[in-house]
Specification:
This protein is of the alpha/beta class. Helix content is 44%, strand content 21%. The longest helix is centred in the first third of the chain and has 26 residues.
Length: 310
């Protein structure tokens, strides 16, 4: 099997169509069909079910992750070889949690692009599960996601930097809760109207979930939706501080302390896949800028022992 066959297989799996995949690659449909037939002959079975709808067979589903790993390793090898030549452009591929895309990654990326306009940047944001999939699929080289990663696949991820971020209760300055600098747990439950349940971690924080249940809250929303709601004077919620730092600074939202509530935080990390291939020079430079900006934001960036010296 060769790179062209693997690329065709990967593209068809993504597009769900031989014709759309052929168009994306820039070849004819007979050519892409020939590549898949050759690959199936090499593997010894069908990779797709043919019909009105194209779908992966069980063999195709089991082979797809390995094919994508192989393509990523080839891409890394080509990039390393190109970077060894004087004057070659570099490339960096970053995935980041949506809640840290602006405050942390955006600031670091702005400084990076200003200093290295020759480098091609590819950045995507989303939730934790999106970041894990992008790493495993080889779409990004490094990613910022929640840490420790709860799923079994976390064993394949290596943290380069770990961040600790405060989680704070906020509401609109004219919300009843905002009239005082600190409130009791009972006041929070009674006056939040509603106390929003936010997804800044794959699962809800146990203590905050108990408070929401006591408040009778049935509004379970993303941070994007919740921010809009509290800006519109509807409810209150616990946000990661970086996500609403600008709103707090300009007075659009107000932080409210809850008495007898232990400090809440979210840990996240800049990670890569565990492998011996070193980070590309552009990725290493961007990682250093992310560390610098995390320190400025008070996220206490630290390097795990295993990551030191990489």
């Amino acid at each position: 099997m060769d790179r062209a066959q693997l690329t065709a297989f990967d593209r068809i799996a993504r597009e769900g169509s031989f014709s759309r995949a052929a168009l994306a690659i820039g070849i004819g449909q007979p050519a892409i069909s020939a590549r898949i037939h050759a690959l199936e002959a090499e593997i010894g079975g069908a990779l797709f079910t043919r019909g009105r709808r194209i779908a992966l067979t069980p063999m195709g589903e089991s082979f797809l992750p390995a094919a994508r790993r192989s393509l990523q390793v080839l891409d890394e090898g080509l990039e390393t070889a190109r970077l060894a030549q004087a004057g070659q452009r570099g490339r960096v591929r970053l995935g980041v949690l949506g809640s840290l895309a602006g405050g942390l990654a955006g600031a670091a990326l702005a400084e990076f692009v200003a200093a290295r306009p020759d480098v091609e940047c590819w950045v995507r944001s989303g939730n934790h599960e999106d970041m894990v999939e992008m790493l495993l699929d080889g779409l990004v080289e490094i990613a910022i996601l929640t840490w420790p990663a709860p799923e079994g696949r976390a064993a394949s991820l290596a943290p380069l930097l770990v961040f600790r971020e405060p989680v704070v209760l906020v509401a609109h300055p004219r919300h009843p809760l905002a009239a005082r600098k600190a409130v009791s747990r009972e006041e929070l439950v009674r006056k939040a109207r509603p106390l929003l349940r936010l997804r800044w971690w794959p699962s809800h924080h146990p203590e905050l979930l108990r408070l929401a249940q006591a408040a009778g809250t049935s509004v379970d929303v993303t941070m994007e939706a919740a921010r809009r709601m509290v800006l519109d004077r509807v409810g209150a919620g616990f946000f990661t501080r970086t996500y609403i730092a600008e709103d707090l600074a300009r007075g659009a939202l107000k932080e409210i302390h809850v008495r007898k509530l232990a400090p809440v935080h979210r840990d996240s990390a800049l990670v890569r896949l565990r492998r011996t291939v070193p980070l590309s020079p552009p990725a290493h430079q961007l990682a250093e800028l992310i560390r610098t900006h995390a320190r400025r934001l008070g996220l206490s960036p630290s390097r795990p022992a295993a990551a030191r010296g990489r």
